[in-house]
Amino acid sequence: xxxxxxxxxxxxxxxxxxxxxxxxxxxxxxxxxxxxxxxxxxxxxxxxxxxxxxxxxxxxxxxxxxxxxxxxxxxxxxxxxxxxxxxxxxxxxxxxxxxxxxxxxxxxxxxxxxxxxxxxxxxxxxxxxxxxxxxxxxxxxxxxxxxxxxxxxxxxxxxxxxxxxxxxxxxxxxxxxxxxxxxxxxxxxxxxxxxxxxxxxxxxxxxxxxxxxxxxxxxxxxxxxxxxxxxxxxxxxxxxxxxxxxxxxxxxxxxxxxxxxxxxxxxxxxxxxxxxxxxxxxxxxxxxxxxxxxxxxxxxxxxxxxxxxxxxxxxxxxxxxxxxxxxxxxxxxxxxxxxxx
Length: 341
Known about the structure:
alpha/beta; Spore Coat Polysaccharide Biosynthesis Protein SpsA, Chain A; 2 domains; nine-stranded mixed β-sheet; 16% strand; transmembrane; Nucleotide-diphossugar_trans; Glyco_trans_2-like
């Protein structure tokens, strides 16, 4: 049997676990007061018997509604809820990092605060974690059918660039809805980059994973803050953080343009010397200059995106700034160098 015909390696057997001593649920929230009113008690009822202890950690990412007031009222009612308020809106990726830094559980469940992630799927994730999987993530079922053909095309292009330009396997239609073992959380805390694309970081750290399909619930209150511009910006962060394929493609584009230019130059010379055809004038020259200028600007724009990521990294600013934490951390301190006021 040749090396190419060798069977794939057999994964190690899973080690079953008991229910966690502490289950942390990380809930990033930006103006989700109306959704949290019902979601927090529902989570407490559904997850109370899934762990010896339960904590619901709400990260208020600079909300300007009553999100903090709602969470504090649930704390006063005796629910196992903690509130971590950031000093301003740092974005969902930073809020997720803040939640993972503050979570103390043996298992950490990440859910959105809008109530669209089914609790029944979260219970399935816990069952798979007890079977031995280190990371269990949700995959939206039927998401592609609900998207326009333009968005599906850009999505396919994005994943093609990721899969052909890096050594990680980033599953499509998987998001932040996932359950992490403690050692996965500790591995994520060691990653120092400022340009955070959590979906890629989850795939990068590896460990044994399991996918579960789910159908998201409809949002009952508010609207999503992710528009087309935000999604495109998010995709650029993911591309520049996990693949150099765009840089390689612009290099190939430059080579192709150079070859075409040489071929065109040879053709013009042959036309003039062999057939006596006059050399084209201003129109050909203007079109060639405009085309080459567009190619150069495209290449410079892609290079500038990567250079901008380097600029963000060398500043060494913290990912987020904590305004207050209620109640305080259960044990120890965060391993990340975040600021607080």
